[in-house]
Each structure stands twice: as structure tokens, then as C-alpha cells.
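DUF2125 domain-containing protein
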Amino acid sequence: MSLAFRAGTALSLFIASGPAFSEPATPEGATRLKELFQTYLGNTPDVITVTPGGENYRAVVDPNPFFALGAEAGLTGTVTPMTLTLTDQGGGKWGVEQDEPFALTIDVPDVFSLDLRIAQSRWSGVFDEALIAFEQAEAEISGMRLEETFAEPGGPKMSITYAIDEMSYVSRATAAMGGGVDATMDYKVSGIVETISSAPNPDMPIPVSATFTIDSYDAAGEVKGMRTQGLYALLSWFVAHPSEEEIEADLAGTSDAIAAALPIFEALHLSGTFDNLDVVTPFGAGGADAGRFDIDLNGVVGEGRLREMVALQGLRLPEELMPDWVPQLLPDEVTLDFAVSGFDLAAPAAMLLEAMAENKEPDDARQAEILRALLPDGKLHVTFGPAGAASDIYDVDIEAEIVAGPADEPAGSAFISAGGIEAVLEALNDAPDDVRQGAVPAIMMMRGIAKPEEGGRYSWDVEFAGEKKVLVNGIDLTALSKGQ
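Structure:
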């Protein structure tokens, strides 16, 4: 989402801590609004201007004076002042609108530079003081172009260019049963192009670059229990304590402000699809006809969870430098899906904030206690799949469940199913002798201990039994590897 959109969101949130202003807009109301904005953006002169006009307030935020604060560090920059129209809709609700181009430049010589241009950014929403969030918002941007460079002393210069032709966004929010805000978000993006490149250097004398393009990208998100009140109170705290010295002078207050914003959110889910991914590198071109993804994670809560899934269809891998026998063995479809649970983020966070409040670095004993709190059962639970790969001649499906911890060996099980083994063995006939001599015996051994299934498929039940023992369909592979 554009910086202009995010700034509009933040500015509108400032309204939440003050009373609703009666119509028409008045100079007194504008003064009160400006004071509320300054609670979050500080009192730097010329940053905030609020003027009444009919039934609306016109708010202009000009971040350019902030760049002067970084002059001693060599930082320079410019940003387009952002103009918002605020309308009191009554009942603690405010309409907010923004429609303008946007530009931002930042430069730290020989370290970092950024140039962001948005041809047009249109945004509107209704902010609800009771929610401390937008009950609805819609945005459209067009012609976004971003250029960044990074450099480390003695290291190569990295460049990134990123472009979006069109993007739209819709969100809705309601009060959450357990506190905070529940919200949904929908994105549509088209015409995505990203290029990453590195200048020649002693370790890599040939320039390296990769260009990624995606025709379209659609995503839907849902967040549960977002702690908007605590998050914006935390923003206010850091605005009121802008320097490291001021923060360290009141670490107890900083700890309390962070704690009030936790768990940030209860849970977050994001899923989406994309069409026609193309990747071009000096070593060949590839991509995928389509893809989908799914992400689930919890906030800073006791029942930690993270899950990620990505699936690619019509996978195209660079074949220009491959021997003729390789392409037929490459997959056309790939699915990766894993989840991690069994960890607790809330308890360790509370311990770290307590140490911050006391201005104490955790000693070895305390660090061990924090680790125990992170893993209440002493173990992580990891699941993998359903996942797998497929081509015109074979397919493989995998599901696994593993439990592992610092003090224990991994334990768990997996189920693997495959079809097309004979076709793979036949395809390997065209491979060089050294490849056949390594791959063919291994595949035949795995086929030999497999359980035959219908349709010419084979399956393997795998058990990680502890003591570094692995059983496959009841056969101890550990013993086989030792020649027993």
C-alpha cells in the first residue's frame, strides 16, 4: 500500500482521541485537530496544517521538516506534502479522502537511496472513534515506481526496481469479541515488475541480475483482535520520546507502552493467487503459469502458530544450460506446506519487558528460563504437507509430522506416495553413467521396500523412532546402512 495511504490512515486515527466536531468546520475545531495530530507527529514546526472550509477540514501533513533532523548523519530527502479532507459524519465517525500523486526520495551517500513515485493515489474511508479504526476503506493507486540502492563498505552495490501498474484495496473492520478489532482486507494488483541486480565486485566479476514479472495478483486477508488502541498509544509514546536517550531514561514507561500494545493481534490469515510469473536471469528464464499461497500466524499469544503454503502450476525452469535428459525429470507442479506450533510468545515477551523495565540484561539463568517459556513442552511441533511434486511422468505426495526440541532427538512419522517410478528409471537411461550409477540403485532399493498400491503406485510409512533410528514400512534403514 502506498505511503500516502498509510499516512492518511495514521492521520485519521489521530481524530479518535478527541471529541467529534460540530458542523460547520470552525477555526477552533481546526486548532483542536492540529493539537491532536501533534500528539502523534510531535511539534516540529510546519509539519501539520489544518484549516476549516465549509463542512470539511483540510489537513496537510508535510514531513519535509523531519529530514533536517537527519542532516548530521548525511541523510537528505524530499516528500510530497499529503492533503486530506476530513468530514464529520456524526456519531463519532469521520469521512477521510485523499486524491493526489506522491513522491518520496531519501539519500544517504554511498549507503542507501530510495526514489518512490506514484502517479495517482486515491483513498477514502470512514473512521469510527469507537473502533479506533476504519470501519471501511477503499484505495486505488496507479503508476507506482520504486528504485532502491544499497551498499556496504567494501561490498557490492545492490539495486532494486519495483513497479506496479494498478492496485486496489478494500477493508472492513468491526469490534472483536475479545477486545481490539477484527478486519478483512482484499487486494488486487496488476502489472508487477521487479528487478534485483548487483554490480561487479571481486567476488562476483560478472554482474548478477534477476527480473520477476507477474501479470496479476489477488489476495484476501483477515486479522483477529488487532490492538489498535495500544498500537497508536505506542506510536504516541515514541513520538513523545524521539531520542534513544529519552527512551533509556524511562525504560519502565517504554516497557509498559509496549505491553499495552500486545498481543498486537490474535491471529492473521492471508491467502491469494497470482497469474503468469516470469523470471529472467543471466542463466536462463523460467516461471510458472499460476500460483497460490496461504499464510496463517498468531500474534504474541500463548498458543503460537505459523503455517505457510505455496503451490505453483505450470512450473517452468531454465532449461538452456541443462543436458537433454534433465527436462523430462523436472516437475510441472510443486506444493510446499508446513506448519509450526507448540511455542509460546506471550510468556517470553513478558519476561523480556520485565527485564527492560528493570534495565537488566538477562543472565544465563534468565535466558534459559526464557527459552523454557518459549517451548512450554520443550518441543516444537512441525507438520509438513500435504505437499509434493508432479510432472508428465511421475508424481510424489508427502505428509509428515515431527516433534523436536533442544534436548531430544526428532521423533515423528511421514507418509510418502509416488507414481511413475518405472518411467523415471526409463528416463534415467539417457543420463550419464555416473548419474545412473548413483540414482538408479537408490530408486530401486526404495521401490524394493515400498508397499505396492493400486494403479502402479508405491507408498512408504516412515517412522523416526528415536536413538537415530528410521523405520520404513517396518524396515530399519539405520541397521541396513550399517550393513546389519
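Residues 3-227+263-282 form one domain.
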